[in-house]
Every structure is written in C-alpha cells, then in structure tokens.
Amino acid sequence: MTQTQRILVTGATGTVGRQVVAELLDRGHEVRALTRDAAKASFPAGVEVVEGDLTAPEGLATALEGVTGLHLITFGGAAFSPLETGPRLLELARSAGVRRVTVLHGGGPTPLEDAVRADDGVDWTVLMPVEFMANALEWREGIVAAGEVREPFVDRLSAMVHEGDIGAVAAVALTQEGHGGQEYVITGPEVLTVGDKVKTIATAVGREIALVELTQQQALAQWRAEGLPEDVIDFLLEAYGNTPEVGRTVSGAVEKVTGRPARTFAQWAAEHADAFRGQS
C-alpha cells in the first residue's frame, strides 16, 4: 500500500484538476487544492483549500510546505495566458521538498512545460490526454431541447478519454516511483465516430437522438454565431477535419500506469445520463 502523501493540485477547479483531487482522495492521500478564489471553490470534505496564483509564484511558498507532489497546468491568471513562471515555480517546489511533478499538456509547446521537461531536480511526468469525453456535454442543450446533435465531420475518429482516467494516471505518477521523465498519451479503450457517441448517449438516456450532419460552411456559421474566436474555429476545423493519428489511436497508457482498463464512453454516458435528460 502506498504511504500517505500530501499533494498540491493546481487548476483544481478545472475538468481534469477535480479528477486529480478525487483520485488522490480515493487513494488515501492528503490533498491541497490551489485556487485564485477560495470563497468560490467547492471541494469534497478533507481537501485543504489554499489561495494562490501561478502567475505570482512568490506567494506560493506556504502552499508548497510539506508537499511531496505537485500537479501543474500550463496557463494561469484571469486571462488564462501561457505561464512564464515555470522556472521559479520549480525552484520553489524543489526547495520545499517536492519530489514529483505532473504537468497537463496544453495542446502544444508552452513555456511552463518546457521548463518542467528541462528540470532534472524532480521526477516529472507530462500528461497528454486526447479528446475529453466531457466534451460531449456540449451537445446537452440540443439533445434536451430538440433531441438532436448537429455536427460536421461525423465520420471523424476519436479515442476520447474519460477525464477520471486522466486523474487516475496523474495520481499514480504523483505518488509512486517509476514515472519520472515519461510522457503519457492518455486515451480511452476504443475509437469512436460521432455517430457512435450519439448512439451511446441515446442508449444511456433511453430516447432516440438524431444526428444532423452539418456542412463545413454550416458549421462555421454556427460556431461564429456562438461567438467562438477565429483561432478556435481554425483549430476545430483542423482537429475535426484532419484528426491527427495520436487522437484516434488507443494508447493503453491508462492500464499500463494504473493497472486497470480505461473506462468506456458507455460508462461515461451512463454517469452523465441525467444531464442529457435535462435533470441536472
């Protein structure tokens, strides 16, 4: 059994951060969650909440006291800009006795991840998840209101990952030996089309859901009407229209690191069925 350790989780209110917190608690570790506004944060019982901002590392010395592991994100501040404070954060972490660091990959090169990879004073692990299963929640409104999903490129493939499995891989890397200097591409156990996902959600909620395929021009109009910035739209066109091989290939990392199979989209859909029924 792994000895109880104290871990500092940054980005703790995010989709992945919450899962890292939950998994560490389930494994019997002490969790310290960093947030910029403790009054607005809500965490499970037993989590120590501390205020701090990764853009101002000098204020994090207290948060790092007694911590053996540190989970980092690559952006910070109100504008969610790429963090430039990586070297100082790592210096403070080493001084506090932190032994292991995980960093959530931000989709491309970032100054903080570069600093982590260059640091030989801690055992670092880069977490590189593909598409989150939680992204399917973007379909909730259309399913509840009209019983339909409207998407372009419906034959695109995705090895999408349960966000809880990202948290599980992070928790192991933060508390156990053997993961230093590794980067893990984290995927689910299967490759799915948009149609596969819609059918799976329909089964979970017990109702028919129509899949309406949009042309590229219709998708552009819809995204712009939703107020998406042009750089985000360009990213979506590339990611959906020309999904890279890494995003549509099962990696097996979850089972390799945690010792159990990755969770399926059917499991995720069952967990979130009420959301697609409009109940929560």
From TrEMBL:
Transmembrane segments: none annotated. Pfam families: NmrA. SUPFAM superfamilies: NAD(P)-binding Rossmann-fold domains. Residues 4-101 form the NmrA-like domain. This is NAD(P)H-binding protein. It comes from Streptomyces iakyrus. The lineage of its organism: Bacteria, Bacillati, Actinomycetota, Actinomycetes, Kitasatosporales.
